[in-house]
Specification:
With 152 residues, the chain is of the alpha+beta class. It has helices at 36-49, 72-90; strands at 3-9, 17-22, 26-33, 52-53, 61-67, 92-101, 107-115, 120-121, 128-138, 144-151. The protein has a 5-stranded antiparallel beta sheet with strand order 1-2-3-10-9, covered by helices on one side. Helix 1 packs parallel to helix 2 (72-90). It is globular, with a radius of gyration of 14 Å. 37% of the residues are buried.
Length: 152
């Protein structure tokens, strides 16, 4: 059974958005977007929104990372795990995220960060993305949907 505990952001007219659904020991992020990359960026926003409030805080640094994977689901996990690494290793939280396609089928992730000390922490920081019930697919209308469970 899944209980929705908070809407991270309403779906806008372009079909983007995400929500978190609470599992007994994990957090489930479900995101949508008009492209695979925008859907993954929404999942990153949902990841941060699941444990912190960063809106309105000015970024202090930026980063860019090229992520590769064979499948769309693996790309979603690779991006989420990369962001979780930055959070845990550097104490920095993404205040904004953008993902663009790379020529090799992967993605280039652009993040603007705030220091964790400048954010309001409201929950447990995720430890990793799980392969359980992983999804990153395009529907018949061309809209992308992805879902990932975060281990907390």
């Amino acid at each position: 059974m899944r209980i929705t505990h908070r809407i991270a952001g309403p779906q806008d007219r372009a079909g983007r958005g995400c929500r978190q659904a609470l599992h007994p020991t994990d957090v489930r992020i479900e995101a949508r977007g008009p492209t695979r990359e925008e859907c993954i960026a929404e999942a990153v926003r949902g990841l941060v929104d699941s444990f912190a409030v960063v809106a309105g805080r000015p970024p202090h640094t930026w980063a860019e990372r090229h992520v590769r994977a064979r499948r769309d689901e693996d790309l979603l996990v690779a991006v989420i795990d990369e962001v979780i690494y930055w959070i845990n290793a550097d104490g920095e939280l993404p205040v904004s995220a953008a993902v663009q396609p790379a020529s090799d089928g992967g993605a280039v992730v652009f993040l603007a960060f705030v220091r964790a000390a400048d954010a309001k922490i409201i929950g447990a920081v995720p430890k990793a993305a799980s392969a359980r019930d992983l999804r990153c697919v395009q529907d018949p209308d061309g809209q992308w949907a992805c879902a990932v469970t975060l281990e907390v």
